[in-house]
Amino acid sequence: MWTRLRGDGMELRRLIRDSVLAAAALAIFVVELHLPDLVPIPGVKLGLANIVTLITLYALSPWDALAVLTVRVLLGALFSGNMMALLYSAAGGLLAFFVMAALRPFTSTRQLWAVSALAAIAHNLGQIAAAILVTSTPSLLVYLPVLAVSGVITGLFTGFAAQFALPRIKKVLKDGK
Amino acid sequence: MIKSRTFVYIISAIFLLSLALAAYLLLRPAPGRVAEIRSDGVLIRSVDLDLVRKPERLTVTSEWGENVVLIEPGRICVESADCPDGVCVASGWLDGAAPIVCLPHRLVITLTGGGSDVDAVTG
Amino acid sequence: MRRALPLMAALLLLLSACSSAPRASDTVFAMDTVMSLDIWGREEDLQAAEDLIRSLDASLSATAEGSDIYNLNASSAWDVSPDTARLISRALEICALTGGALDVTVYPAVLAWGFTIGDYRVPDKPELEKIAETVDYSAVELDGVSVKLPEGVMLDLGAVAKGWTGDRCAELLRSRGVESALLNLGGNVHALGSKPDGSPWRVGVRDPFGESYLLALEVRDCAVVTSGGYERYFEEGGVTYHHILDPDTCAPARSGLASVTVVGPEGVLCDGLSTALFVMGLDRAAALWRECEGFECVFVTDGGEVYITSGLASGATLADGYEDIELQVISRD
Fold it and tell me: How far apart are CA C266 and CA A51, in angstroms?
């Protein structure tokens, strides 16, 4: 993908563009780390960085979105000093990505809120599945409904944020060509 | 294209179902009074909270960090921890069916009915 | 959205159906301990029991200013409430039954050792001998509601108060129509009726050397009371001093027993006997049991042996991890 640099400048342009998006996602992620917890329930957070993934997915392509997501998750774990979280956020992030990528062909740019909500639910599902496997504690399943509820709320929030931002950012990305 | 209305139905259904389920799961009484402290899935300590006489601090050290578990007569919590998020400390006293979890340190404290098949203990 | 409403209603109905039997529980801090009440009845019944516990605590405490017992000890002659008089009368009978192994006038010794407020010290021998002269339950004069104590004699109902409280609460709850309740008055367990499903209550007897219980007893309408040196003690100079004082020596009883559990329908008797039998030691305790009716016992010796009287043997099961213990049955003949 982004490693194959060709002479025509297209691939280089793409590399730089995705890097900037990943950097933006990372910045948002790090800022959110420092916000106080909304509720003391493990796994409940806004997930603002998903705004960038969502925008990349709709403005560019699934491949670009996956690249941005992967870089953000890896560097995010490094930056937060919480390598354990890598596992949880990778499991959640990938599951959410698959949901978003699968829904993209069937949705318009005015339905980002719905895609985001479903992705957030999937993210929390993946996260709790990872936590159950890692800690071998099936009783963590009791948090699943709570995380689904929080997924709907936070997913709608980030979804609408992405939906409103998308037209402007799309314009910037296109102008760059 | 999927209709927006379809999304409203699906998301509302998930939301309401989960909300009801969450209320039921988290508000129901704990299955028992035995607290099990697990680190990385391994049972570190199982303590019948009704039999605790003196407050005790248990430091659970794993390769990821430290959690100080406070065991008092009848209750248990994580008093302090050097984990990045601090969710385990913010959870407060363990009650009901929702376990205390420190995801970064793979620490879980649950209440179970296991170990105690009596209704009360004398002495 | 509208389609989701019936679904939601159905769910809520399902959830509310889960809580059928009326049950009320609470914990009360009284008589220096945590008491947990679990009754199958209404909130009002629970409240009535709590009020009763608080009023008994207020009148029976030896340390609370203004209580019957406090006033009596302060003035050596006092008219107590009819209820307190009933308890004093029953307590004196139990003292006599045990030949003074239970003595409700051992309080000056308890004070000297610092067991009331945790200000522990080891009194020397002359001091204890002097105190022992004042310890004599038969010196307590009870006439109706008026109680007289000779100079230097002090009364403390701590050894029977929780058992009495259990009896009184059970009586109150029964009169209010409660058929099933489990009162755990700081380790004095009082079981009312049987479990709501009709099966007997299972009460564990604590392992005096550990944090767990070593055997479970099946009981209905019974008090189960354990006395053991592990309940309250301090260490000085490498010696452990526990709170169960032998009225003869006014020093911690060293009878070879680690704990005594007494089971019977009358809580106040079980409470008093658990202390007395601990002081008496296994042989004398077993002899007393053979002479009397109305209670059964479990003895755990300092060596970890477990003796159980024949009336309990069939309903007792060893707990997980204690299967290796051989229960030695004491029979009547």
Answer: 70
Identify the CATH number of the domain in which residue B69 sits: 2.60.320.10
Which structure tokens are listed for B25?
């799961």
ipTM for the predicted complex: 0.81
Crossing angle of helices B4-27 and A112-135, in 10° steps, is 30
Closest CA to C307 of C215, C212, C201: C215
Of C4, C8, C206, Cβ closest to residue B123:
C206
Cβ pair A80:B84 closer than 8 A: yes
Which residues in chain C (293-332) have CB-CB distances under 8 A to chain B?
319-320
What pLDDT, on the 0 to 100 scale, is given for residue C1?
Answer: 41
Instruction: Note down the domain range covering A168.
Output: 10-175
Task: Give the CA distances from residue C176 to residues C166, C170, C230, in Å, rounded to whole numbers and listed in that order.
Answer: 15, 10, 37
In chain C the first and final C-alpha atoms are separated, in Å, by 77
Which chains have 3 or more CB–CB distances shorter than 8 Å to chain A? B
Distance from the B73 Cα atom to the nearest Cα atom in chain A, whole angstroms: 24
Residues B84 and B52 in one domain: yes
Tell me, yes or no, if the pTM score tops 0.90.
Answer: no
For A107, nearest residue in chain B (alpha carbons): B1
Nearest C-alpha in C relative to B48: C212
d(CA B11, CA C162): 57
Instruction: Indicate whether C80 pLDDT > 60.
Output: yes
Is A40 in contact with B105 (Cβ distance < 8 A)? no
- Report how many domains make up chain A: 1
Q: Which helix (H) or strand (E) holds C280?
A: helix C267-280
Chain A residues whose C-beta is within 8 A of a chain B C-beta are 33, 37, 40-43, 80-82, 84-85, 88, 103, 106-108, 110-111, 114, 117-118, 121, 131, 134-137, 139-140, 142-146, 148-149, 152, 156
Instruction: State the total domains in chain B.
Output: 2
Band of residue A141 on the pLDDT scale cut at 50, 70, 90: confident
In the block, residue with structure tokens 């019948």: B48
Domain assignment present for residue A111? The answer is yes
- Domain annotation covers residue B117: no
Owner of token pair 């560019």 = A60
Between the CA of residue A80 and those of A30, A84, B102, B104, C279, what are the distances in Å? 7, 10, 16, 11, 63
d(CA C305, CA A78): 58
User: Which residues on adjacent β-strands are paired with residue B57?
Assistant: B70
Q: Do chains A and C touch (3 or more CB pairs under 8 A)?
A: no
Is B2 part of any domain? yes
In the numeric block, the tokens 């024949």 are attached to C310
Which of B16, B47, B121 has the CB atom closest to C4's CB atom? B16
Q: Where are the beta strands (DSSP E) in chain A?
A: none
Write out pLDDT tens, residues A63-92.
Answer: 999 999 999 999 998 887 777 778 888 999
pLDDT digits (tens, 9 = 90+) for C193-239: 998 888 899 999 989 987 778 999 999 999 999 999 888 888 888 88
Set of chain A residues whose Cβ sits within 8 Å of the Cβ of B63:
none
In which residue are the tokens 């179970």 written? B112
Contact criterion met (CB < 8 Å) for C213 and B51 = yes
**B119 in a domain, yes or no?**
no
CA-to-CA distance for C309 and C331, rounded, in angstroms? 6
Taking the alpha carbons at both ends of chain B, their separation in whole angstroms is 69
**Is C24-58+68-330 CATH 3.90.950.10?**
no
Size of interface A-B (CB pairs under 8 A): 111
Tell me, yes or no, whether A103 lies in a domain: yes
How far off is chain B from C53, nearest CA to CA, in Å? 19
